[in-house]
Each structure stands twice: as C-alpha cells, then as structure tokens.
Amino acid sequence: MAGSPRRTAGRRLQLPLLCLLLQGATAILFAVFVRYNHETDAALWHWHNHSNADNEFYFRYPSFQDVHTMIFVGFGFLMVFLQRYGFSSVGFTFLSAAFALQWSTLVQGFFHSFHRGHIHVGVESLLRVKDAGGSMTIHAFGAYFGLVLSRVLYRPQLEKSKHRQGSVYHSDLFAMIGTIFLWIFWPSFNSAPTTLGDGQHRSALNTYYSLTASTLSTFALSALVGRDGRLDMVHIQNAALAGGVVVGTSAEMMLTPFGALVAGFLAGTVSTLGYKFFTPTLESKLKVQDTCGVHNLHGMPGVLGALLGVLVAGLATHEAYGDGLESVFPLLAKGQRSATSQAMHQLFGLFVTLIFASVGGSLGGLLLRLPFLDAPPDSQCYEDQVYWEVPREHEDLAQGPLRAEELETRA
Amino acid sequence: MAGSPRRTAGRRLQLPLLCLLLQGATAILFAVFVRYNHETDAALWHWHNHSNADNEFYFRYPSFQDVHTMIFVGFGFLMVFLQRYGFSSVGFTFLSAAFALQWSTLVQGFFHSFHRGHIHVGVESLLRVKDAGGSMTIHAFGAYFGLVLSRVLYRPQLEKSKHRQGSVYHSDLFAMIGTIFLWIFWPSFNSAPTTLGDGQHRSALNTYYSLTASTLSTFALSALVGRDGRLDMVHIQNAALAGGVVVGTSAEMMLTPFGALVAGFLAGTVSTLGYKFFTPTLESKLKVQDTCGVHNLHGMPGVLGALLGVLVAGLATHEAYGDGLESVFPLLAKGQRSATSQAMHQLFGLFVTLIFASVGGSLGGLLLRLPFLDAPPDSQCYEDQVYWEVPREHEDLAQGPLRAEELETRA
Amino acid sequence: MAGSPRRTAGRRLQLPLLCLLLQGATAILFAVFVRYNHETDAALWHWHNHSNADNEFYFRYPSFQDVHTMIFVGFGFLMVFLQRYGFSSVGFTFLSAAFALQWSTLVQGFFHSFHRGHIHVGVESLLRVKDAGGSMTIHAFGAYFGLVLSRVLYRPQLEKSKHRQGSVYHSDLFAMIGTIFLWIFWPSFNSAPTTLGDGQHRSALNTYYSLTASTLSTFALSALVGRDGRLDMVHIQNAALAGGVVVGTSAEMMLTPFGALVAGFLAGTVSTLGYKFFTPTLESKLKVQDTCGVHNLHGMPGVLGALLGVLVAGLATHEAYGDGLESVFPLLAKGQRSATSQAMHQLFGLFVTLIFASVGGSLGGLLLRLPFLDAPPDSQCYEDQVYWEVPREHEDLAQGPLRAEELETRA
Predict the structure, then answer these.
(1) Three-class SS of residue B329?
(2) From the centroid of its chain, how far is CA C359?
(3) Residue pair B353/B140 in contact by the 8 Å Cβ criterion
(4) B388 by DSSP, 3-state: which?
(5) How far is residue B336 CA from its own chain's centroid?
(6) With 0-12 CB in 10 A as exposed, 13-18 as middle and 19+ as buried, what is A94?
(7) What percent of chain B has pLDDT above 70?
(8) Most buried of A226, B69, C58, C213 (most Cβ within 10 A)?
(9) Which residue of B has its CA nearest to C1?
(10) DSSP bridge partners of C58
(11) pLDDT, tens digit, for every residue of A150-163?
(12) Is the C-alpha dihedral spanning A166, A168, A169, A171 positive or negative?
C-alpha cells in the first residue's frame, strides 16, 4: 500500500511534536507568568485562614493513608507487569511493607522513618544535607544498592527464563493501576517530611509540575524512539514517574514552577532513553540484570535530582526564601553556613550515598549467595509457581460463555 | 424443561421489583422524615465545632488528591472496557490529565479551573448562572461537543472494527475499578467549587443520595430490559453514575434529600434506556457513533440536570435558604434578581451551552479531518496496536501452570 | 534430581522461619521499648497543636470517602477471586452498598450506622458493651448469621459447580486490589466510631499493629502448611486481614502495641489454619458451604476479638486510662460499674450476638427457601451468566496481536 511509509513516518512524529510543542509553549508561559506568590496561588495555597474565600479547593496534607496507598497499591501493582510474577510482586510488597511498618516504630516514631532507612538518618542528620523526598537517600541509594547486588548475583543463563520476562495485555493494565496511584500520591510523599504549611505546599506543587512534565516528555520520547512510532507501556509505566524522583531533593526549595517543569521534562527524557538504549547495554556489557529498569526510574533521575539539589541550594538567598529560609536551610538562616558551602555538603551527600550503596549492595549480594539460601534455578525466574500455588486456568473461560440455550438445558 | 419459561420470567422481574419496591419505600420515608436540618444531620454535618461530639465521622473536604483519583483512575479505567483499547484508554487519559494540570495553572489558579474550561467561565461568570458540578458546562457541553464532532467524523465502514468494539470478561472488571472510584469521589467533585462549609456539605450529601438512587434504578432497568432478565455491564459501569451528573447544577441548592433521590432515580432510568434503545438509533439514523455512550451518561442527564437547576432556582426563597442565600444566589440575596429571573438565566445558560457545543464540535471535527492528520483506517479502530507496542500473549499462560513434577524436572 | 527433596524442605521452612524470627524479635522489642506515651508517639499523635512541629505526618481522620473506598473497592474486589463470578461480586456489592447508604440515613444519621445494623444498636446501646470496630456485632454476627443460613440452604449437589469455585490467575490479582484497600482503610474503619482525638489515634494505631502481625503470620503459616512450601493466594487475600477483625472490640482500649501484635499474630494463624484444615470439614461434616471462608476471616477472629475485649476490659484501671476512661468506659469512670462487671457485660454481649446470629440466620435461610424465589440450579452456581450478559471472549485476543506487516496490509 502506497501510503504506508508516509503514514508510519507521520505517526512517528505526530504525538512527539504535539507533546513537545505544547510543553515548550507552556514552559515559556510558566517562565514569564507563574510565580509562587502570584496572588491566585497565594490565595489557593493559604491553608489556615480559609473562611473568607468563597471557593476553596485543597491539596490535602500528606497522611499515612496516602503514603500507604502509594506503597501498597502503587509499588505492589507496578511490578505486576511481569506475566507470571504478579502474585510475587503484589504479595511480597505487601509482606515487606507490613513488616517495615512495625520496624519503623522501633527506629524513629511511627511513620516518619517508614520510607527512609538508616542511611537517610546518617546522611541528612549528620551532614545537615537536605533530601526531603529522597532523591539521594531513597532513589539513588536504593537503585545503586540493588544494581550492585544484581551484579554480584549475575546469572549468565537467565535467558532460559526470557519468555517469562515480558508482560501480557492484562498484566500491563494491572501495572498501570500502580503507576497512577504512585503519580497521584507522589506529591504527598515528597512533601510529607517537609515543614507543615508553606514548605509542604511548595514541595507538593513542585512535584506536581515535575510529574506533569515527565509524563509529557515520556510520551513524546517513547513514540519518537518506538518501532513505527508506537508507544511502549514499560516507558509509560515507569519513566512518567521520573519527575517525582528528580525533585526529591529540591522540591521544598525555591525551585520555581518553571524549574520544576524543566527538571521533570529532563527526567522523563533521560529515563525513557535509558529504557530504550541503556538497559540492554547494562546487561550485555556490565552484567547487571535490571528487570524493572530501576536504573532508569530511580538511579539516573535520583543522581540528577541530587545534582539539581546542589544547584538550587547553591543559589539560595535570603531574598528568595524570606522567613522560610529558617525551615529549609536552618544553618544558612543562622549564618553558620554559606549557600556555596551548603551546595558542597549536598554534593558530598551524594558521594557518601553512592559509596554506601555500593558497599551495601556488594555485602548484600555476597550474603544472598550463601549456599543454604535457596534460590530458584535460572529456568524458573520470574515464575510465581516457585513460591505460590497458581490456579490452573479453566477451560470454560477460554471457551467463552455458554449460550442461553445451553444454560437452560444444563439447568 | 417445563420450568424454564417461568424461571426466566421470574428472573426478569425479581431484581427490578426488589429494587423498585425498596427504592419507593425509602423515597417515601425520605419525603416524610429526612430534612437537612434534622437534628441528627445538623450534628453530623457540623464541621468546625467537633470537639464536643463523642462520635464524629466526616465527609472529607474535597482535595486535589480526591479529584485526581477520580480523573486519573476513574476516567482512565472506565474506558478500559474495550477489549483491545485498554492501553489507549488509560494511557491517553493519563497524558491529557497531566497536560490539563499544567494548563489549568495558567488559566486560573492551580486546580480551580482544571475541570472546567473557558466555556464554564463564560457561562457562569458572565451570566451569573449557577453550575457548580457542571451539569451544563461540563457534561452537556462535553457530550454534545463530542457527539457533533463524531457526526462530522462519521465512518460508514466502521463495522469493519465491530469485533473489537465490545468487552471481554477481565476488561469489564477493569472498567468497574473506574466506575467505583468515580462513584466514591463524585460528591467531592460536585462540591469542590461550592462554598466551604454548609455549601460543600449540602452538595456532597445531595450527590450521594442521587448516586445511590441512580445505582438502584440502573440495576432495576438493566434487568428489566435485558435478555432473559440479565444485567448488562455497560449499564452498570455508566448509567449508575448518571446521578452524579444530574445534580451537577442543583446539588448546592436546597434540592432536599427526597428531591435528590428522585433526580438520581430518573437519571439512572433515562441513561439505561438510552443505552438499550437510543444508542443504536443514534448510529443508524443520525450517523453518530457513540462508542462509550456519552449521550446516555453525560448528554441526557446533563440536560436534565440543567433543567432541574432551572426548577430548583425558580423555587428559591429567603425562607428556604436563610443566610445561605448569599453564597448560593448572591444576586437574589441582594435583591438584584428574582427567583424567576434566576431560573430564566439558568435556562438561557443551557441554551448558550448547547450552541457553543454544537459550533465547537463542528469546528473541531473539521479540524480533525485535515488531511495531514493521520487517523487509523476503519478496520483498525479500537485497536491499541495502532499506537502501542502490544505484548504477544505467551503460550505458557494459556496452557496453565506447570505441574509440580515438571517444575522439579526442569529445575 | 538429587537436590530436589532438600530444596523443597528448605523452601518450606525458609519463609516461615524468616517471618517468625523477625516477628518474634520485633515483638520482644515492642514489649520492652514501645509505649503509647513514648515522647516520639506523643509528638506524632498530637493532633491540634501542630504548628510547632517541624516534621508532621498524619493519620488522617476517618472519612466517608475512606470507608466507602474500603467497602466499594475492598469488599467489591475481594470476592472477584472466583473465576466466573466477578461481575456478581463487584456488581452486587455496589448495589447493596448504595442501598445501605440510603437506609442508614433513615436509621441513624447519615453514615454513623452504615456499617452497623440494628443488632449493633441493640447490643452496644442497651447493654453498654464496647465494640467500636465490631468484632462481635459486625464480624461474629455476620459470619454466624451467614453460616447458619448456608447450613439451611445446604446444596448436596454443589460439586456440579466445583470447577467454577476456584480462581484464575488474573481473578486472584483483582482480589488483591480488594485486600490491599481493605488493609489500608481498616484502621479508619475501626477508629471511625470512637472518640475524636486520642481515642481514634489509639484505635488506628492498634489496628495497624495488629494487621502487620496478621500479615506476617499468614505468610509464615501459609508457606508452612502449603504443598512444597508454596503460599496460597486465598490465605493472603483473607487471613492477612484477620488482624483488623480481632482488635475490633479492643482497639480503642489500652491494648498496648505489644498486645496488638500478639492479637494480630494469633488471628492470622488461626485464620490460615482454618482455611487449610477447618473449611473442608465444615462442608463434609457440618454441611456448611463456606465459599469465601467467612468463618476463617470473620467468625473465629470475631469471637477471638470479643474474648480479647473481655480480657482487656477486665484489666481496665483508672491509672492506665487516666482522663480517657470517661470516653472508653463511661460507667467505670462514673463508678457505676467495676472492670470485672464490664468484662462480664462484654462476654454476655458475645453470647447475645451469637444467639441473634443463629436465630436470624435460620429465619433468613427459611425465607430464602420460599418456592417463588428463584435460585440458580446446583450446576450454575458461581456463574455470572445466570444474572449477567457475559461477553464472548474474542478469538483475536487469544491469538495474540497482529504483526506489524499484517497491520499495514489490513490497512
């Protein structure tokens, strides 16, 4: 058919161009018009004195339930994309999160420490590094810990399980449940540990802007690099969330709405390109098997987010933060540290995080290789049946429903 | 089998009779006993002074997160009912909502304008017409805009894609995720733009009542008109929500709980009958292809809701509203407009909405027919594969799980 | 293969041992270190005066929306595990909950009575028995009502529908949506009817602890009793929630965090063992067909919870409750009843509940056996098609997606 090549070329460019043009135009308008203390925003974000407004609509303060929804539903279902590993994904997330809730009580109050481990306490408290949403201490740490661990556990024969490594149609839809609940509650997650009031509002708002931009750039890039301009569900499920990761350090700072858009756009781009081009290399060259693409969603955007934190901290001034400087950078407010010094501390925080992650991942990997720990063989990876009773699909369902006459006859 | 015809007749009437009798009896009791300022309600809905109560349970103020859940999860999954269009439904809802969030900041504050476009600002602000939940400016406008657009884009050969136009078993279950989250958060949506406090409580309460009644009438009517008395998932997924649409204009007014029940019951009835009898005619006679039945969920209930607003506004008195008149009908409170005049303005608002929708839909349709815009051929509609990489279903899943012995042998 | 038996034995013990060791160690640390009025907790749970804190994170007060999510999403999807009964599970839950919302307005305010019927009002109000989360009046009552009813409706030929009684892979994943939303909002449910402030915080916190422990014990026991150490989805979907049931009576009391862990652990254990060993006996010996295992999730944990309430009420002292005694046990605070007397009342409440449930279940069963009520034949149980139009699965989906060339050719 004559029109086909042109149609294919058109399809490849149509969605990317639309997304990029719209995002570009919007970003310019943001740069020119949108400010935190624009009068509409001020009215909108003003929390305590709402009785005078005739039209109020809230960002809800982050709560246990919001973050639990994010973790149990979001993380649990995101990994259900694997066609034969859904029970394990949702089940083991459930088990781990339940245990983490108990353990967090012991460590540091009920929930405060749920989503951040000792490394966080170490880096943030001791060095006075800011990292509220955890670009460094959650995402970069977790990703590189896991990738180093995966390197130690490298399975050269894993292609024996290759046929189970992809998704099926409905498993991708389950995974989208995870993606969407993560997207909705990521602003709550990033703002939960920040200062009540202005700090939480700014964190949430920056996270929203960044997530919208990473969603747009992910769709644009996914179509651009896809076969015949087709979108890839793996990108949408994951890279669209990179905007939440990349502002994990700087969301509570005066990043500006325009800055949040740019950061999110870059994160979605880097993450999508990572899935397309870097993940295959990671396995073939570096012998790191990264099934879920944590390097693309958590690793690179986490490091980017840490560097963004260095930049935004280095630009902090008394003018830009006003009275809020005390809560965001207490040492700056007291004059005990300069902005440049804060930036250097942030950079050092990233360095320490990566060291801890590498050492921890290596030790963890060696521990898991202990012979008495039972691991599934290479041919049985990504297979629920190793750990779960899996129902035998019933022939009736495959055959389709009975016809009405059959129903009556059987009755 | 002798009992079969009687059984079929019995089944056809059993559920409808049960629903109708229960709803009738409940509605009568509502008319006689339930008032907004019944002492139990007053205690329940009293918001600010809760410290004396020993038993409090809240309607939560509408928040970003609630409405995001409604839009991303609700709208996203509702359309997944199509067997081969799930990726597009959830994916493109995700993309559009993310962009709408950015754009809304530019238009009018962060979220206030997210769910209402310029037409709303035009109608509500300039004419001083009330339409908080958007029966007119969201539902009727959106539906008739889309239906006119669909008329312009009419595809006579669309039956080539007929086999993909229905659902499969699991796609209907995914769609129910959408329905249920929409149902839960519709009261938040309708009450979000109304006055904080009493206004939001009344809006939410009326929406709840209306939704419960449309759910009951949908089940009753669906079984009544179904083959052998069987329920139809399309009705349950959509018409059950018509109660939220029909009170979009009047939910903040003194509709009374009984009025909300009646409105919801009618909306569910009209919507279900529309799916059964009107949608086929719409395509065959009027050449409008309405795959999701927007005319039944948004069009007719939206117009009904606008007319209900005319009626309830026309009945407004200082006695019924008390001090609340100022917030619901400010011009009436100031004596600048009579109730009848307000009613006429409401009717004129509907008229303007429908004109705008028709003109806008026509222009939009002509725009989309521009030759350089690439549309899928008639045989490839409702098909994710045009835009998405779709995984090949793996034979292992169809064959059912391995037996334990096979697992051990392969290991 | 030589290693197989050892591998199987290792797998059977690995997960249970891990769970039991971690839970044991954590429980000991809880017993030694964790107190309600530990300074971190006090800061965390302090509700009204949050302006001084620099790091706040909330348990959100229970709301309509939370409990609706629990009921519509949670209950609705939990029962979707049946391979051919998903439409009925989610649909009829939807219908019943919508009607219950209307009815609750008539009975006792808008939502207060939604999740508790007359029996609750009878037992709690008349006898002054505490049962906020409904171990007795919701769970034990509902379970034994239903089990007695199921005994009266016993179908000896039900094995004709046996092939439809299990799950398929994706129906189990849908059910996990139900489980997880129930888990997240169970603390809101148990705390909704308790006293605002400290009472709600304590109820929620105890419910969280109990749920985490029942989740851990369910995974441990499920693997321990499973074939080859495999986990069973039925256990995870249900028994993991038994921790919410077992503290339904005592969550608002001074159960202590350690007490909540122990109670939850026991409930998960009893529930899992019930699914494995008791449900088959229940059918074969007692002629009670308990498809969803309500005896394991609601019956036994409900009775256990009532007995736990007897114990904790009997141990109540002025020292332990301080000023809170007035809200939890008003008659004790006024000196009109001793702790022992309160415990006896609690025990009598359980007795009355079980009598009411048995009589009510018998009458309900006899009512449903009336000949004009149409029930599906034994061969058509667990089959949506009796009540619903069920889509015929399309051959295209089974065949997998088209290849790119086919797409172009067809176009």
Answers:
(1) coil
(2) 23
(3) yes
(4) strand
(5) 34
(6) buried
(7) 82
(8) C213
(9) B409
(10) A63
(11) 999 999 999 888 88
(12) negative
Q: Token pair for residue A224?
A: 């651009």
- C-beta separation of B264 from B213 below 8 A: yes
| Nearest-angstrom CA–CA distance, A218 and A232 | 10
Name the E strands within C192-329.
none
DSSP calls for A55-98: S--BPPPPBHHHHHIIIIIIIHHHGGGSTT-HHHHHHHHHHHHH
C211 close to C183: Cβ distance less than 8 angstroms? yes
Exposed, middle or buried, C94 (CB in 10 Å: 0-12/13-18/19+)? buried
Residue in chain C lying closest to B222 (CA): C388
What are the structural domains, with CATH classification, of chain A? 14-49+59-371 (1.10.3430.10)
Structural contact between residues A173 and B90, judged by C-beta atoms closer than 8 angstroms? yes
For residue C240, which of C217, C209, C215, C210 has the smallest C-alpha distance? C215
Phi-psi region of A129 (alpha: psi -120 to 50; beta: other; left: phi over 0): beta
C226 and A CB contact within 8 Å: yes
Q: Is A172 on the interface with B (CB under 8 A)?
A: yes
ipTM value: 0.87
Task: Centre a 10 Å sphere on the Cβ of residue C338 and count the other Cβ atoms it contains.
Answer: 13
**Would you call B33 an interface residue with chain C, using a CB distance cutoff of 8 Å?**
yes
pLDDT averaged over every residue in chain C: 82
Closest CB to B54 among C94, C195, C400: C195
Q: How far is CA A371 from CA A158, A366, A367, in A?
A: 19, 10, 9
Nearest CB to C112; choose among B57, B164, B188:
B57
Distance CA A196, CA A62 (A): 10
**B184·C110 Cβ contact <8 A:** no
Of C192, A223, A326, A116, the closest CA to residue B59 belongs to: C192
How many CB atoms lie under 10 A from the CB of residue B179? 25
Of A393-402, B34-43, C47-56, C179-188, where does mean pLDDT reach its minimum? C47-56
> What CA–CA distances, in Å, run from B232 to B4, B211, B239?
21, 18, 11
Please check whether residue C212 touches A, CB under 8 A.
yes
Q: Return the SS3 of B23.
A: helix
Amino acid at C104: S
Give the model confidence (pLDDT) of C67-97 as tens digits: 889 888 988 898 888 988 999 999 999 998 8
Nearest to A240 by CA among A266, A261, A211, A277: A211
User: What tokens does C109 get?
Assistant: 């305010």
Place of tokens 């997240």: C184
